[in-house]
Sequence to fold (206 residues):
Amino acid sequence: MVSDGPVEASETLWRTALHDFNNLLAGIQGVLDLSDPAEPLSPRNRLRLEATLEEGRNLVAMSRALALGRIPDAGQLPWPEWREGLLRRLEPLSVLFKCPVEVVLAESGDGRPWPAPLLQDWAVALSRQILPWVAPGALRIEAEVAPEGWRLRWPDAPPIPPALLPVPPEDAARNLTSLWLRSMGERLGLTLEAREGTLVALLPKD
Fold:
């Protein structure tokens, strides 16, 4: 993927951020509209509200990263901890879209630790882009350590979102997540391909 250049100071960033935050407020209002004002929130609506607020915190983090260039420090985690962190980040999306999530290690590999936290955040952001087309089915992410780096696969996924193509069409729908994905993907040197109904992301070795 190739980024559009310095999105940090662009009008596109402001437009997409305002649009996405407006959608966030609409989501919160939707939870309140479905609740009885005379009664406490039901367990289901409380989960939806918590998940929506977590999405809002993610939008703030993305906006800050794009506007200020604040990127989390790179680290590494053993696979079990890396997977647990990814599932924890995906939980709000699973609640909002009523979509179960499965993360598996397709190959045992060589026991190499996995990059964190940016690759985890990137995987969650891409999942957010494709979940509307996957739900209400299950979202499956397959991971493997390949000779050339770390590979993630999303089987039975829709095509690459137009905004994430190497050369996006002019009418491609853009949002804050797609801007963040392009920018962080370029920083990581990450590639995204579609192979026979599967989206494949590769983070090369240093």
About this structure: The mean pLDDT is 83. The two ends are 18 Å apart (CA to CA). Helices lie at 11-33, 43-68, 79-97, 118-134, 176-188. Strands lie at 75-77, 101-105, 114-116, 139-146, 149-154, 191-195, 198-204.
